[in-house]
């Protein structure tokens, strides 16, 4: 359970409230690199401090956990995020068998993350069932990878597949249906594919958030992604590699609808 300033809030409530407060739909992807771990930590903290009032959340990748270790990330960046009332998402892309997925999800949640990203390809029974259970008991979130942002994504996610009842549809539509069925807290759909965002938005209706990575460095346009139906944008290099991260984050600000 996320306890913020003495009040228990769910992941979805926390990100919506940060988005409304900061008038921003940008989730910062904190993927900095440095062989020197103290320098990596310093750069990561400076980036967060620079843009904290211009974003609605922070996404951390396994890359940063490898560089700093989970305990250091928890004691520094997650603590800082909590001070600024910014939710944190662990981009673990969980995709293993149930018991290891469950262990990893629990570790990330107990470290302080508010949500994890998982791959629906692992399936429910003995795949993601225990991840959803771990999240539910703590009021945390599970976001499902539904269509990746990289150019090669199409070769898999758009492939046509036959369901057991004989219905044939693109894999990403089947993944979207699973996300609804399993009560995921959001879908990850590349900002580089506004047409796919719009198709998925039609399938899921207006409520469930779509998180869209791939803005800037990968060529995705923030406005096109939001217009197509994305709720939040996930942005990394365009912000932290810029000479003026604050100005870029300011330029990316799009008010959430209430
Ligand atoms: P950039 O630097 O391109 O970083 O803004 C994007 C961030 O988002 C992650 N990413 C994805 N995560 N599904 C995901 O779950 C995707 O399709 C996807 N594409 C990019 C990437 O790891 C980085 O943190």
Structure report:
Helix content is 47%, strand content 20%. The protein is built from twelve helices and twelve strands. The chain has helices at residues 11-22, 37-51, 62-68, 70-83, 98-111, 124-138, 154-157, 171-181, 194-204, 222-228, 237-240, 245-252; strands at residues 2-4, 7-9, 26-29, 57-61, 88-94, 115-118, 141-147, 160-162, 168-170, 186-189, 210-213, 232-235. The radius of gyration is 17 Å and the shape is globular. It starts with a strand and ends in a 6-residue tail after the last helix. The mean pLDDT is 95. Bound molecules: xanthosine-5'-monophosphate. The site of xanthosine-5'-monophosphate has 20 residues, from β12 and α11.
Keywords, separated by commas or semicolons:
258 residues; two-stranded antiparallel ribbon; binds xanthosine-5'-monophosphate; alpha/beta; 12 strands
């Amino acid at each position: 359970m996320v306890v913020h300033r003495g009040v228990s809030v769910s992941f979805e409530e926390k990100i919506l409230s940060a988005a409304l407060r900061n008038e921003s739909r940008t989730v910062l992807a904190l993927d900095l690199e440095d062989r020197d771990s103290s320098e990596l930590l310093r750069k990561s903290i400076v980036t967060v401090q620079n843009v904290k009032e211009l974003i609605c959340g922070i996404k951390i990748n396994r890359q940063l956990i490898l560089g700093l270790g989970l305990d250091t990330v928890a004691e520094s960046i997650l603590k800082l995020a909590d001070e600024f009332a910014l939710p944190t998402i662990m981009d673990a892309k969980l995709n293993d068998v149930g018991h290891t997925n469950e262990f990893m999800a629990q570790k990330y949640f107990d470290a302080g993350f508010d949500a994890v990203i998982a791959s629906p390809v692992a399936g429910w029974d003995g795949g993601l069932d225990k991840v959803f259970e771990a999240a539910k008991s703590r009021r945390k979130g599970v976001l499902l990878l539904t269509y990746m942002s990289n150019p090669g994504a199409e070769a898999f996610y758009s492939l046509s597949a036959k369901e057991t009842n004989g219905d044939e549809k693109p894999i990403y539509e089947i993944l979207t249906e699973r996300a609804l069925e399993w009560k995921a807290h959001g879908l990850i759909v590349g900002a580089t594919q506004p047409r796919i965002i719009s198709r998925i938005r039609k399938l899921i209706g207006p409520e469930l958030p779509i998180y869209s990575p791939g803005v800037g460095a990968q060529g995705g346009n923030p406005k096109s992604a939001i217009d197509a139906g994305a709720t939040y944008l996930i942005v990394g290099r365009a912000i932290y590699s810029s000479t003026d991260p604050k100005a870029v984050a300011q330029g990316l600000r799009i008010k959430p609808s209430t």
